[in-house]
Amino acid sequence: MHDEIDKLKFPNEKAPTQPTVTVSAGLAMMFPKIGNSHDQLIKMADELLYKAKKSGRNQIQHNC
């Protein structure tokens, strides 16, 4: 998905960082067990998204 979006070269004129649309994502995985919640999973994915943005954007960070 990441490479396919990059190939499309959608213009992003108002962005201060890149002239085309890029993808940053956080991908989290959690094994189900007692005490785990979907809120924890969402929080992990959100933290990974911000890590991707802080690391230069246009990348996917994961905990898999």
Structure summary:
The chain has one domain. It contains two helices and two strands; from the N terminus they run αβαβ.
Structure description:
38% of the residues lie in helices and 9% in strands. The protein is α+β, with helices and mostly antiparallel strands and 64 residues long. It has one domain (2-62). It has a two-stranded parallel ribbon. β1 (25-27), α2 and β2 form a beta-alpha-beta unit. The chain is elongated, with a radius of gyration of 14 Å. The two termini are 17 Å apart. The model has no long low-confidence stretch (mean pLDDT 90).
- The best one-word shape is elongated
**Count of domain modules:** 1
Low-pLDDT ranges: none
Strand order of the largest sheet: 1-2
Q: What is the N-to-C succession of helices and strands?
A: HEHE
- N-to-C CA distance: 17 Å
- Please compute the radius of gyration using only Cα atoms: 14 Å
Strand content is 5-15%
Largest sheet: 2 strands, parallel
Please describe the structure with a list of short key phrases separated by commas or semicolons.
9% strand, 64 residues, single chain, 2 strands, alpha+beta, 38% helix
SSE layout and pairings?
Elements: H1 2-8, E1 25-27, H2 38-54, E2 60-62
